[in-house]
Design brief:
Length: 151
C-alpha cells in the first residue's frame, strides 16, 4: 500500500456520480455523509491526471459494485454517470454556522488515487442532521457541474 500523503490546497479532486444513488447528478445529492465515519470518497487528481483516468476509476468501481450486488442476489443496477470536480482549498474552507468543517485526506488503502472528505466536528459541539445538510449545500457550491460519461 502506498504511503499516505498530504494533499495540497491547490490540488483538484473528483467525486464519482452513480445511479441510482445520486439521481440529481450534483454535489448535494452525491455527498451523503451517512456512515459512522462521516466521510465520502473522492479521487485525487495527482494520481488520476486526466478525466479519462477519473472515468476509468469510476467504471472500475461500477463493475466491482455490480459484481458484489450479483453475488448477493441483487440486480446489477449501479451505473457510473460521470464526475464532479472541486479544488481542495475550497472544500477545506467550508464551515457550517455552528463551525463544523471538512478535511480532505489521502486514504490510499483503496487505491493510490483514493482520498476522502470527512466532516470535522467543532470542539464541544454535536453534529446534527441540519449541520450535515448545510455542509452538503456548501459542497454543491464549490464543485463543478458533472462531466458526463457512460461505461
Amino acid at each position: 500500500m502506498p504511503d499516505k500523503e498530504e494533499i495540497p490546497d491547490e490540488d483538484i479532486i473528483n467525486r464519482s456520480i452513480y445511479l441510482p444513488q445520486h439521481p440529481n447528478f450534483d454535489a448535494v445529492s452525491s455527498f451523503v455523509f451517512d456512515s459512522s465515519e462521516r466521510s465520502e470518497s473522492v479521487i485525487w487528481r495527482k494520481y488520476a491526471r486526466t478525466m479519462f483516468e477519473v472515468h476509468a476509476i469510476g467504471c472500475a468501481i461500477q463493475a466491482r459494485m455490480n459484481l458484489s450486488r450479483i453475488r448477493n442476489g441483487k440486480s446489477a443496477d449501479r451505473r457510473y454517470r460521470g464526475a464532479i470536480e472541486g479544488i481542495v482549498a475550497r472544500v477545506r474552507q467550508i464551515r457550517s454556522q455552528r463551525s463544523h468543517g471538512l478535511v480532505v485526506e489521502h486514504e490510499p488503502h483503496e487505491g493510490e488515487a483514493h482520498a476522502e472528505i470527512a466532516i470535522r466536528t467543532a470542539q464541544g459541539a454535536k453534529l446534527k442532521p441540519n449541520d450535515v445538510q448545510e455542509i452538503r449545500e456548501h459542497l454543491g457550491r464549490v464543485f463543478s457541474p458533472m462531466v458526463p460519461h457512460a461505461c
